[in-house]
């Protein structure tokens, strides 16, 4: 006990994983923070081994993926874990963000802001990683998505050419994306470390959304055992997908070598970007669509300043709770719409869903917060 608390090296591990004071009422939804750490570790390890055999050249990139899957020992397993692990990573991220929106975790502003920055870097890392297999959807997805930046007045075309390294998605583009995809995980690791330090200094939120300093317990064993249980479930789900539904979350077009002369019937990014892609496509103006795409993420930064209710958590707010689940259903709808062709009725539904997405953050959160304050505290006073 004395060594654990006094040793210069061990005491930091002890304060982080063993004696860390944690709110006594947190539930399994708080597991997703540690599950994200596990997902990141899996992606980092498998990515390093895949990089040993990958060739960042447009002539050899697709062939190197085939080589990994067919010739490298356990290469197919590594590639499948890395590809499906990315999807599992984003599932955990969306649940983690959804939990913070429900329980008012965004009121811990330093933690919330650092988390959103991690989310943005994750999205960039995942996008450039999706280009590396150099399949049809990789090539055309990179061409279409990066070309949207040309809508920026005056400097848009220069930015696109700088990203491409030329006048089209080519060998220079692939080389840049490969180097950045290898570098960004280490940037993510630094941001995650900062995020964890902030959690320990500011304190974790809890389901009631109140100050929990008067009722805390040590992290180990109370919550460590829950995290270990979550680790086993996550690994089981990942392996189940890898062995039985390997390509369920991927696009069949990406199993065809990139061809700049053959355009896929329907170009779309990976499923975890589809909600933003649907918002982008819902606006006919190219610049307006790009701005809406950026705002769909940036708007998360202003949520703490839009909160008007005296309760941080939705646990005691029936109206806010109902509208929250309507928002979640709308988010899933946007994800589905992003995979559909640009035609009616999908265009009309996308416009309505996109408007509700922004309306929820900018109007529903502050207005319903004030309405519930009025209804609840008026009733209490009476």
TrEMBL record:
Heme b b566 binds at residues 96, 195. It is a multi-pass membrane protein. The chain crosses the membrane at residues 28-55, 76-98, 110-132, 139-156, 176-198, 228-246, 287-307, 322-339, 346-368. CDD domains: cytochrome_b_C, Cytochrome_b_N. A ubiquinone binds at residue 200. The keyword Transmembrane helix applies. Its cofactor is heme b; heme. InterPro entries: Cyt_b/b6_C (IPR005798), Cyt_b/b6_C_sf (IPR036150), Cyt_b/b6_N (IPR005797), Cytb/b6-like_sf (IPR027387), Cytochrome_b (IPR030689), Cytochrome_b_C_euk/bac (IPR048260), Cytochrome_b_N_euk/bac (IPR048259), Di-haem_cyt_TM (IPR016174). It is found in: Mitochondrion inner membrane. Heme b b562 binds at residues 82, 181. It holds the Pfam family Cytochrom_B_C. Keywords: Electron transport, Heme, Iron, Membrane, Metal-binding, Mitochondrion, Mitochondrion inner membrane, Respiratory chain, Transmembrane, Transmembrane helix, Transport, Ubiquinone. One of its GO terms (molecular function) is oxidoreductase activity. Its main location: mitochondrion. Residues 1-208 form the Cytochrome b/b6 N-terminal region profile domain. One of its GO terms (biological process) is mitochondrial electron transport, ubiquinol to cytochrome c. Binds 2 heme groups non-covalently. PROSITE patterns: CYTB_CTER, CYTB_NTER. Belongs to the cytochrome b family. PANTHER family: CYTOCHROME B. Component of the ubiquinol-cytochrome c reductase complex (complex III or cytochrome b-c1 complex) that is part of the mitochondrial respiratory chain. The b-c1 complex mediates electron transfer from ubiquinol to cytochrome c. Contributes to the generation of a proton gradient across the mitochondrial membrane that is then used for ATP synthesis. This is Cytochrome b.
């Amino acid at each position: 006990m004395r060594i654990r608390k006094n040793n210069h090296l061990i005491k930091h591990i002890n304060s982080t994983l063993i004696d860390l004071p944690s709110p006594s009422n947190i539930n399994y939804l708080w597991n997703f923070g540690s599950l994200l750490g596990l997902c990141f570790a899996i992606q980092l390890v498998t990515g390093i081994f895949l990089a040993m055999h990958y060739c960042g050249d447009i002539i050899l990139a697709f062939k190197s993926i085939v080589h990994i899957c067919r010739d490298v020992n356990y290469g197919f397993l590594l590639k499948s874990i890395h590809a499906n692990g990315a999807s599992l990573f984003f599932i955990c991220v969306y649940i983690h963000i959804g939990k913070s929106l429900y329980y008012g975790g965004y009121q811990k502003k330093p933690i919330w802001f650092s988390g959103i920055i991690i989310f943005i870097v994750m999205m960039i890392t995942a996008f450039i990683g999706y280009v590396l297999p150099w399949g049809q959807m990789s090539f055309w997805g990179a061409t279409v998505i990066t070309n949207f930046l040309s809508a920026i007045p005056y400097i848009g075309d220069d930015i696109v050419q700088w990203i491409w390294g030329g006048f089209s998605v080519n060998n220079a583009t692939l080389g840049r994306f490969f180097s950045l995809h290898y570098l960004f995980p280490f940037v993510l690791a630094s941001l995650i470390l900062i995020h964890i330090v902030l959690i320990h200094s500011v304190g974790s939120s809890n389901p009631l959304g109140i100050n929990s300093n008067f009722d805390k317990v040590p992290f180990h064993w109370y919550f460590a055992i829950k995290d270990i249980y979550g680790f086993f479930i996550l690994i089981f789900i990942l392996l189940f997908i890898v062995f039985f539904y390997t390509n369920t979350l991927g696009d069949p077009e990406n199993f065809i070598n990139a061809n700049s002369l053959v355009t896929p019937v329907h170009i779309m990014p990976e499923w975890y970007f589809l909600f933003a892609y649907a918002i982008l496509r819902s606006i006919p103006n190219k610049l307006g669509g790009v701005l809406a795409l950026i705002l769909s993420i940036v708007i998360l930064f202003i949520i703490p300043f839009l909160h008007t209710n005296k309760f941080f958590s939705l646990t005691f707010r029936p109206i806010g709770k109902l509208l929250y689940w309507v928002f979640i259903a709308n988010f899933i709808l946007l994800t589905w719409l992003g995979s559909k062709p640009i035609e009616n009725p999908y265009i009309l539904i996308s416009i309505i869903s996109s408007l509700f997405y922004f309306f929820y953050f900018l109007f529903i959160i502050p207005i319903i917060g004030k309405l519930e304050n009025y209804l609840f505290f008026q009733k209490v006073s009476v």
